[in-house]
Give the backbone structure.
Amino acid sequence: MKLKLAATLAGVALSGLTLAAGAARAEDFVTIPLETTVNAPADKAWPKISGYCLIGAWFKTTCTVAGPDGQVGSVRTIAGRVRELLVAKTAWSYTYSQPKSPIDYHGTVEIQPIDKKTSKLLYTLVYDADALPKHEAEDKAKDKEQRTRQFTGLLATMKAAAEAK
């Protein structure tokens, strides 16, 4: 009887958590998919841009890593304040998150082979715009525009590094 009551209470508690966690709505999330063609094969380009803390040099700021550098679970700190957790990694991609971010921010960097001489570099950002301090439609659009501009510049820098001899 006690076991059945405990299981029932646990189920009710879990249902409440599920409902609370489900408060985010798909339309609140913004996705910024960026891509560019790299004039180098993926297997030659990726080693030049896959370093988890290279972003510091590209943004002309500092970057440090805690934990095993470039491995899932490592944390990079950019400019002494932005902390990002490496949450996934493949041979030609990695995904990070900002675990303390109120906007549930995530990014993925990936390279895909096109042919023997070229590849496609992708940088995809996803975040909850509804959690921004101001979240009217105009504010969301301005925020997305600013992030798109910033990361388009970063993508161009990464392309140049990937193509460098």
